[in-house]
Design goal:
The structure is a homodimer of 424-residue chains. The first copy, chain A, contains 13 helices and 17 strands. Chain A has 424 residues and is of the alpha/beta class. At the A-B interface, helix 2, helix 9, helix 11 and helix 13 of A face helix 2, helix 11 and helix 13 of B.
């Protein structure tokens, strides 16, 4: 880790939303887990540094999944003829209950960690279940894999079936503190994140206790926001004294500001909610595949970008059925085209440069200087061998990246680095 | 081919749009390339017939791609930040021109035939390019593969760049007859189909000559209809005396009726066009991925089904980037959900049963008794080993089929039969 090394290939990364930086036969140098920048030719001072040459392969920053439900991986791509609230009751809750057993959790969580390891993502912000012991199992597995993650033990003390509902706000808070205490200082690459499931699942008492935990433990928070029309209506009924769904988090200090927060979906945010997101620097996890699968709708991403909001991409497994953020990029483009065609002709569809930024530097910002090869960014890199995709045609590196976004699968990921560590 | 044999496994097929037929540990028998039906237990008369046991694997009818541009496969997943007309000029026409060279055609067409062979499709209705000799190369390759296809040499004599435009209506017609003459009687599994590219590419003189060829050679026809708003406007300008886009085909006898026809897309058909489609029994090739990629819009498939129209699925490579009709099923569901949510709340989203029907029996009807395991249907079968997809969870066969639609790729296709011939 202390030594400087480089990797060489066809390098693509983002500095901003509008431009794709491409270095053909470029070299990214790594020192102590961080990038020293991208070079066309090694500077004199680094002339003797070892460089692994990936030749014609594409090299991109590791991708960031800002929203994924790890326990739902085992039942992804099932029951997708339902909308959110029915899907939770029928499909999700009975499956999540199985994680009461840490042995089951180990077997099931191994599958998603293995899948993520083989794919293009290097970091994720994960929901576990309400079971603290199993959440710890997930953290152990991520740590062992070398990937980086925030993992949250879920809190939920109402509007859930008895078999998947914490007994009281006190019990939920106590289990959370026990989980935090047990895992404190245990990991190098995994951190805890506060995880109230969503407002319908959390009583006011619970939210208040979580706020206290957040302050004591200095934790970021993740949850869901304005995903589905019935859900939003339900929140209005549950919290009649709030100005919007987001306000139901904000009144307990869990909507950005001092403590960073990620809100998944934001498909149907009213104007005042978007303003609050902007003012508080809340991160939006845009999950296009899930929003399609659960008939939630199409998020107004062009508007998010025009407003300068913090946006990244999420797989939302198992609302989404694939963990790959390459696929999320493709889906984000597709949905934005349909949104432009059918909802708002002034909302220009997302282009390649933009979705690539969202899936790398956009989401990476939640982790710090992550998601780019600029100097001082953490050295997460994915090497893609796309040679089978450019037969009979000459392609620029940018064209090859576009094709990799649409076509590549785990067969084409041939090397992966996280924080300077080579995972394979 | 003359011998009776069976294959055994977890069998799924459609008889109608509403129901999925499932035979767990069922056997489909094949005699002379046709199904004898599905049995739970072999009848006495067939007790000694050899049965290949695929055990727990799924067995489905071979899938039907009703609309695919074979020459575009090599540049799939490129330039998708454009709409149809720009995409044709910038992306498509220069690439199609390369098929003037039959040696290039052989190399390039081999890639799509190989891809289709490995995937879940068994039959396709294909556009080639305007080059008759290369169209024949494609027919040769499909024939050798054992797959079944209609292949069309494209006709286009206007509104195309000089390097990809036939000199005159006469020259186009002459080249078509030469191609038909050269390939007549040459193939067992490949048939020609008349292929005017779309109305903007075909002069009235050409359409008239194609009608004569259609009558002389008794040919079905394929083309494009009401895909993109600018395209439709253009057709209105080019054919001011027609009542709709479809009428511009119909006045030359190329819109169903006596000669079967497939029209791809039908995203923006006015009512009178839909009535004409119904009255003439025109087949609609629904291509959801392409309609998204090229920002064309969302086809009103629920309406097509309610009207009882003939509908199948198309990959529309390279408007679409994948040939797999499993993926087209997933995309058809997804787009129908967004259509329901944003365009027409009375248009219930498509469900699993419906898209499975469309990708098998719906499109298969264009080929005759194809796309089902019912008695007398041609024996096309695909065996999917989905074992890696049901770890840690018990699934019904229907659930496994849903998951295969969303998740499976060519790694999971472990055997394939077409007209009773085992391809692998």
């Amino acid at each position: 880790m202390d030594e400087i090394f480089g990797i060489k290939g066809q390098i693509c990364f983002s500095k901003d939303l509008e431009h794709l930086e491409i270095a053909e036969n470029g070299i990214v140098l790594c020192s102590r887990g961080k990038s020293l920048g991208v070079f066309e030719k090694l500077p004199e001072a680094y002339a003797h540094v070892p460089v692994k040459d990936y030749k014609d392969a594409l090299i991109i920053p590791g991708l960031i999944d800002l929203h994924v439900h790890a326990p739902q991986f085992v039942f992804r791509a099932l029951g997708l003829d339902m909308e959110l609230l029915e899907w939770l009751d029928v499909n999700t809750f009975p499956q999540e209950a199985k994680y009461a057993d840490p042995a089951y959790a180990k077997e099931a969580y191994s599958l998603i960690v293995e899948d993520m390891l083989k794919g293009p993502n290097t970091r994720a912000v994960m929901f576990a279940t309400l079971h603290g012991e199993s959440a710890e199992v997930l953290m152990d597995l991520v740590e062992q894999s070398g990937l980086v993650a925030y993992v949250g033990k879920v809190n939920m003390d109402r509007n859930a079936p008895d078999y998947l509902c914490e007994e009281s706000a006190e019990a939920s808070a106590k289990a959370t503190v026990a989980w935090l205490t047990r895992t404190k200082g245990k990991y190098q690459h995994v951190k805890p994140i506060l995880t109230p499931r969503f407002i319908p699942s959390c009583s006011d008492q619970l939210m208040q206790k979580l706020q206290e935990i957040q302050e004591t433990w200095d934790l970021p928070v993740q949850s869901h926001l304005s995903e589905n029309i019935s859900e939003i209506q339900w929140v209005h009924e549950l919290c009649p004294d709030t100005s919007c769904y987001g306000d139901a988090y904000a009144r307990y200090g869990m909507f950005g500001g001092r403590y960073p927060s990620i809100m998944a979906h934001c498909v149907h945010c009213p104007e005042n909610e978007l303003d609050m997101i902007k003012n508080n620097g809340v991160y939006i996890a845009h999950c296009p595949q899930s929003n399609t699968n659960l008939s939630s709708g199409m998020a107004p991403v062009r508007k998010f970008l025009d407003m300068g909001l913090n946006v990244g991409l999420g797989s939302d497994v198992a609302g989404g059925y694939t963990t790959s953020i390459l696929r999320a990029m493709a889906d984000a483009i597709g949905v934005s085209k349909l949104y432009w065609r059918t909802v708002d002709a002034s909302a220009k569809p997302l282009c390649l440069e933009e979705v690539f930024y969202l899936g790398t530097k956009g989401g990476g910002a939640f982790f710090g200087k992550v998601g780019s090869f600029e100097k001082d960014y953490e050295f997460d890199a994915v090497v893609i061998d796309d040679s089978q995709y450019h037969k009979c045609i000459d392609l620029s590196v940018k064209q090859r990246l576009e094709r990799a976004i649409y076509l590549s699968d785990d067969r084409h990921i041939c090397a992966k680095y996280v924080q300077g560590r080579q995972l394979f």
